[in-house]
Amino acid sequence: MLENIRVVLVNTSHPGNIGGAARAMKNMGLSQLVLVDPQDFPSADAVARASGASDVLDAAQVVGTLEEALVGCSLVLGTSARDRRIPWPLLDPRECGVAACEQAQQGAHVALVFGREYAGLTNEELQRCHFHVHIPSDPAFSSLNLAAAVQVLAYEVRMAWLAAENQPTKTPKLEATAIQSSQPVTADELESFYAHLEQALVEIKFLDPAKPRHLMSRLRRLYGRSEVSKLEMNILRGILTETIKAARGEHSEREKVDV
Amino acid sequence: MLENIRVVLVNTSHPGNIGGAARAMKNMGLSQLVLVDPQDFPSADAVARASGASDVLDAAQVVGTLEEALVGCSLVLGTSARDRRIPWPLLDPRECGVAACEQAQQGAHVALVFGREYAGLTNEELQRCHFHVHIPSDPAFSSLNLAAAVQVLAYEVRMAWLAAENQPTKTPKLEATAIQSSQPVTADELESFYAHLEQALVEIKFLDPAKPRHLMSRLRRLYGRSEVSKLEMNILRGILTETIKAARGEHSEREKVDV
């Protein structure tokens, strides 16, 4: 599906940026790179900055015009730094990622178009785009590095793709026992813990049962919001057991020392 | 508000990446850069890649250890490429941006920590982080360029910031002292707590210094994600102090009873 989304770089000056863009694409699972009239390509600088993504560079299609780069595309999204005189439908990067994925999933081809390092896309080129995409940078310093701009849009495409694929982005593969011990404790387990904790605090004379004040409610608030796992609860209960033993002088070693 | 969020680069090899990171930060409205033991800085390569963001480089703080870089921070978010044996609370970049903004808006200081180009952060460094952040890259080609990773997280911080700016702030009005004591503790305060906790666990003989296993890292994970407030920390520290006294049989009342 992601192979339906191509990145189009128009008239790039610095081959290092082409390499950086290729790396950003491959990191995010994109592979289709089209270069419109690049000023210096192929180039060792591009390969160096691609850092392992030279397969994307090798497969890159080099064409003479934006028109050729967009052949077959039913959705064209063009990055734009500035507000233009002619208002155009404008997306932020997140909306761009969602739109690109929706189209690509239906089998359509999508182009993400990036302009020149210093001058961006011309008005004519921008008018070939169905939507403009603006990366919300600080107006006081708004021009992103080309590879950084590709990174942001490719990242949003991947986030939308992962959401659409319904693949959880964080899949820790755990053994059954690990899953069990990482499960949060139940309310009754938490109540037993609070009773044990209160007992220990009395034993170490931190809590005066005659003047309990807000102590237990504050500790309930802390542990209540922490989603304590079963494993962590075992540790906390173990600490309380040993604390009570220590307060009572019941440690075998301690007794030995005392004698 | 964004000035409460610092970017920490640990032991960076290539000064060009420091420059690229500075540019990405400034594009997204971030200005606080901290460099932990950079291999080559200051550097002309950094200035070249910063491309107009050399003010961020000039103001960068260079320190010797991660600990120094995190002084004053109550939320530390560390980028991690790999699944770890001990699972840690994991955020995606979007969740990271929201969490960083929420904290920064309450006046707390936040660190986004990035590791070495080839080796990332060490396990010890990762354990100093309250949350790990994973940029959901293609598992077949997962390692982002350092400046590109900074770009993605800085972009998500900005998106969260813009969303928050457009919403009325929902901060209940609290008394000055209540606000202060409900503020989360800083990373250095948390480190002192862990040292105190470890000492207490040894005193009550729950922790054998010769065989520490994963105990402290599991407790770090629990308290690290709980956003412990200053008031709660006072309670926890008080409990530890009394626990140690009890273990040593130093309680005045206990002595009285013993006599």
Automatic annotation (TrEMBL), chains A, B:
Gene3D superfamilies: 1.10.8.590, 3.40.1280.10. Signal peptide: none annotated. It comes from the Bacteria. Keywords: Cytoplasm, Methyltransferase, S-adenosyl-L-methionine, Transferase, tRNA processing. Pfam families: SpoU_methylase (PF00588). It is found in: Cytoplasm. The keyword Transferase applies. Catalyzes the formation of 2'O-methylated cytidine (Cm32) or 2'O-methylated uridine (Um32) at position 32 in tRNA. Homodimer. This is tRNA (cytidine/uridine-2'-O-)-methyltransferase TrmJ. It comes from Pseudomonas guineae.
